[in-house]
Amino acid sequence: MSSTAAQPLLDGRTAVVTGGAQGIGLEIARAFVDAGARVVLGDLDLDAAQAAADGLGGREVARAVRCDVVKADEVDALLAEAVEGFGSLDVMVNNAGITRDATMRKMTEEDFDLVIAVHLKGTWNGTRKAAAIMREAKRGAIVNISSLSGKVGMVGQTNYSAAKAGIVGMTKAAAKEMAHHGVRVNAIQPGLIRSAMTEAMPQKAWDQKMSEIPMQRAGEPAEVASVALFLASDMSSYMTGTVLEVTGGRFM
After folding, report:
1. Side by side, which strands form the sheet with 38-43?
2. What residues does 64 pair with on adjacent strands?
3. Domain Ketoreductase: where (predicted)?
4. What is the pLDDT of residues 46-57, one digit of tens each?
5. Which candidate in 112, 124, 160, 230 is catalytic?
6. Residue 233 DSSP SS3
7. Surface-to-core class of residue 53, CB atoms within 10 Å of its CB (0-12 exposed, 13-18 middle, 19+ buried)
8. Is 238 a catalytic residue?
9. Distance CA 229, CA 216 (A)
10. CA dist., res. 243 & res. 171, Å (int)
């Protein structure tokens, strides 16, 4: 390699990704590893997370930790794996999430509370715990995964839309608190992204969503991952408190 070769964007840095065993989270982790980072995958499904970490290159570059993001002590343990196992915590991606869709008339209190807890409290735990470590180093990037549902509201998603909108407000508040400590906090709002979850959608619902997208196609997980990489890296060094939409132009 010539001495003029560009240094990888995340060379020597350590990133933690929640919900990292599959889907968008795994794709973000893969993009980070390709950019020179070491990653710790947090997920409720330890077996899937371990398989994902092995696929990314094994213990030297990727590790798996079982983590329920609603529980602060489990988030502490997840971040400790990055700091103690790899030597630093430079990037935090709060991606873990679930859906429990139903109209308000049919939604249970339990399904409302659970979605709010995982998305909103989980992202708060990840943000505050990572920020506490990063402020000591006077640097760091936090990337929160919101959703287009948090911008426009979706039928059957009063819980999910509320949580994803809350993540935007939280991101901006945290960005203001952490800016003078050298820690940046930004959010991504993906639209219709091709995944196991979205492909299980009824055809009619899929067609309806497709009709709203000017680019006339669903996005790929890698297209969210590349934006996460941008926000995690020094390429976005003067950006904090922003919300980047990855939607193919849907609901501009």
Report:
1. 62-66, 38-43, 14-18, 91-94, 140-145, 183-190, 243-246
2. 41
3. 13-196
4. 999 999 999 999
5. 160
6. coil
7. buried
8. no
9. 25
10. 9
* φ/ψ (deg, to 5) at 84: -80, -35
Structure tokens at 245: 């939409």
140-145 and 62-66: which strand pairing?
unpaired
End-to-end C-alpha distance for the chain, whole angstroms:
43
The residue with tokens 């939604």 is 107
Q: Which domains does the chain have, with CATH numbers?
A: 14-244 (3.40.50.720)
Pull the structure tokens for residue 110. 């339990």
pLDDT in tens, 6-24: 899 999 999 999 999 999 9
CB 52 within 8 A of CB 27: no
Q: pTM value?
A: 0.97
Q: What tokens does 128 get?
A: 């505050």
- The reported pLDDT for the residue numbered 50 is 98
